[in-house]
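Entry 12.
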Amino acid sequence: MAASIKKEVGSDVDLVEGSRGEFTVWVGEKQVAGKGPTGFPSEPDVVSAVRRALGASGFTLIELLIVVAIIGVIAAIAVPGLLRARMSGNEASAIGSLRAINSGESIYASSCGLNGYAQSLEDLAQAPPGSTQGFISPDLATTGIVKSGYIVNLAADTGAVTITLKANTCNGAAADAVSGYYAEAHPATVGSTGQRSFATDTRATLYFLNTGGVIPKGMAGASPLQ
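Predicted 3D structure (tokens):
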């Protein structure tokens, strides 16, 4: 009987037999079946008793494997969605950074660069005398800075010429103010921190590239962001 019960419930079962044919059934240190008022239990009764004992003591291996499998399926469904949500948030941050650069360059040209644009994020973040506030937020104060998974850069555009010497800018810029600028933001890790890359220039139009590569000056291969 012990062998058949073990096969039925998938657990170690001890069957202790007495000299007169009586027996008791044990699961671990717990007696789960034996002679009762109506005589010795049948095999189905013993199986039921063993299962009740096992249910009280915890999960079976099969049940644990089922739970692990379910968790794996849920994770396989949820993780890609979470990754896409994170990339979308990072892309929105990159777009916001380039818009902030456009706004800062516009204010810089009209109030500090004598119609010339800053060539670097450092110059754009440099506050003029008597002020503690630059033309862009401190989290974008360094060219090549990584913000929300995107690398952000600012430079003079192709063909840009000097408009105002650096000594004549209101904030003592490190480089001359020029006639045009170019800014770009690309993912630090394509497919992980972001998928699309973005860029803008003096026209203040934003462009994107689905491959995530750096958009060149002049926006070749990129499309306007709607």
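Annotation: The radius of gyration is 36 Å. The first strand starts at residue 14 and ends at 17.
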